[in-house]
Amino acid sequence: MSDLGTLTPSSGALTFFNDDEARTVEAFAERIIPDDGNGAGARGAGVVYYIDRALSGFSSELQPVYRLGLKELDHFSRRETGQPFVELDTDQQDDLVRQLIGPETGDATEGLQFSRSDQERGVADDESVDTTLLQRVAAIIREHTVEGFFCDPVYGGNRNAVGWKLVGFPGAHWGYTAQQMAAGFDGRTVPIKTLADLRSELANLPDNSTFYRNGE
């Protein structure tokens, strides 16, 4: 079952979602990138806060997709299981997610566009489920989950750089030395830096020659 206590004021303010919507998105995102036991899952990375900020900013045109799609997801979950999505155990959530976006590997769901007629239609009645709407919102949540897991933490996700640590990415650097750029170099040995770290270093930038190869 989803941890309903995750969304607290100390976790960050919500700018678009209400608490119920945020919990549902968080639970869905956690099934896309689940915790491996070390806190490296979508929930631990704060992916829901990245999505929330995106919907209040550069992805604001997707607000209707989430508003209607999350209602439809709840409707679908209640019809299939008798409970809202956020209250299902992880196995049940996985089963519903697979129904919407397919197995863990395979082609992405098509049809991310959200037309005016879709927006005007609203949520399906008690006896039917709008599969097209569900597939669209599920595909978009998946895309936003990946973005939020690997973005710079300044955008709300990738808390403590968990996404970067998972793949061995050193983050944001002014540049790399010739040794660091050489084939076979282990990028995990480079200390991870974020955009916030770079901002704090503005007054003490290294000399440009640090990044030259063979003095050129």
* Helix content percent band: 40-55%
Rounded average pLDDT: 83
**Residues in β-strands, percent:** under 5%
Q: How many angstroms separate the termini? A: 58 Å
Q: What is the β-strand count?
A: 0
Give the H and E element order: HHHHHHHHH
Largest sheet: none
Tell me the number of helical segments per DSSP (H or I, 4 or more residues long): 9
Structure description:
It is elongated and about 65 Å long. 44% of the residues lie in helices and 0% in strands. It is built from 9 helices and no strands. It is mainly α and 216 residues long. The protein folds into 2 domains: 9-159, no CATH class; 168-211, no CATH class. Residues 1-5 and 111-116 have low confidence and may be disordered.
Sum up the structure in keywords.
216 residues, mainly alpha, 9 helices, 44% helix, disordered N terminus
List the helices and strands and how they pair.
Blueprint lengths: L18 H14 L14 H9 L7 H19 L8 H12 L14 H6 L9 H20 L11 H6 L10 H4 L13 H6 L16
Helix pairs in contact: 1-2, 1-4, 1-6, 2-6, 3-6
Short description:
This protein has helices at residues 19-32, 47-55, 63-81, 90-101, 116-121, 131-150, 162-167, 178-181, 195-200. The protein has 216 residues and is an all-alpha fold.
